[in-house]
Protein: Thiamine-monophosphate kinase
Organism: Acinetobacter ursingii ANC 3649
Amino acid sequence: MAEFSIIEQYFTRPFTQQDDIGIGDDSAILTPPTNQQLVICTDTLVAGRHFPLETSAHAVGWKSVAVNLSDIAAMGAKPHSILLALSLPNIDHDWLQGFSQGLFDCCDRFGVALIGGDTTQSAHLTITVTALGYIESGQAICRSGARAGDYIVVSGQVGDAAYGLQHLGGALQSRLDYPTPRCELGQTLKGLASSMIDVSDGLAQDLDHILKASNVGAKIFLDQLPLDPAVQALPNQQKWQYALAGGDDYELCFTISPQNYEKLLQQQLNVKITMIGLITQTTDLIFEHDGQNHPVQFHGYQHFA
Ligand code: ADP
Ligand code: MG
C-alpha cells in the first residue's frame, strides 16, 4: 500500500503525449518519431558512494536525472523521458518531497517526462534512473570516430566537482551537487564532432576511452585546461590531478576536425568550450606544459579498484 501512495504522492504527474502512456500501467508506451533511433542509458547512485550521505534530497533528485541526461547528450541525442527505480530504507516524507522536487526540476529544465519506475524497500538508499532519447538514424556520435589531426575540446570547466567534494560548503559544492548535463551542446555537435564522451570519471580516463575505441593517441596542453580560479590557484600537480582525474564534472569531451571546429565557433552556444589538445596517430596520451612534454601522475575513479 505504502508503495502506491508514494508513487501517487510524489512521482505521478500528467503525461500528455497523444497515444503514449506514462505512469500507471504495467509498462509505459512511446511512439518513436519516424526515422529516429532510440538512445537508452541507465546509471545508479548509491548513497555514500556516489554522493555524500549529507547531500540534500533535492540535489540527489537533480543529480540522479542529470547524470543520465549527460550520457544521452554525449551521443548527440535529444532526451525524452526517464524511468526511476527507487530503493528506500524507510519512508521519509521530507526526503521524498525534496528528492522528487529536485528530480522534476531537472526533468523540467531539459523537457523530460518521468514515465515509470519501481519503488522498493532495501537497506541502502539506491537510485537508478534510466533515460531515453532520440536521434536521427545514423547521426549518433560514438567514441570510435576520432581521427589524427582532430582537435580535442571540452565544455565548461574540469576539476570543479572533485574540488567541491574536498571543500564541502565552498562555492564549487554546487558543481558537485547540481551538475549541468550539456544537452543543448550535445545536439549541436551532431554532424560536427567525430567522437564524444561525457566526463564522469576524470578527463584523462574518459578521454582514454575515446583513444582506445578510435585506436589513436592524444596530446593534451595542460596550460589550456579550463579551470575554476580556485583550482587554477593550486600548485601544478594538484590542479592537474583535479582537472585530469577528478570525477563528476559531467562536461562533454569531444573531438572535431579543425574545419568543423570553425563552423562550431560560428554558432551561439550556451556553454564555454575550450580546445585542450590534438588527436595523434601514435596510440599514447602525452601532456605538454610550457611547450615541453610533461609526464603527469594521476588516477581516475574506478569501482572495485
Ligand atoms: P508492477 O507491480 O506492475 O511492477 P508497480 O506497482 O511497481 O507495477 O508500479 C505501478 C506504476 O507506477 C507503474 O506504471 C510504474 O512504472 C510506476 N512506478 C513505480 N515506481 C515508480 C517510481 N519510483 N517513479 C515513477 N513511476 C513509478
Ligand atoms: Mg513493481
Notes: The chain has ten helices and eleven strands. The first helix runs from residue 2 to 11. The chain has a mean pLDDT of 95. The longest strand covers residues 36-46.
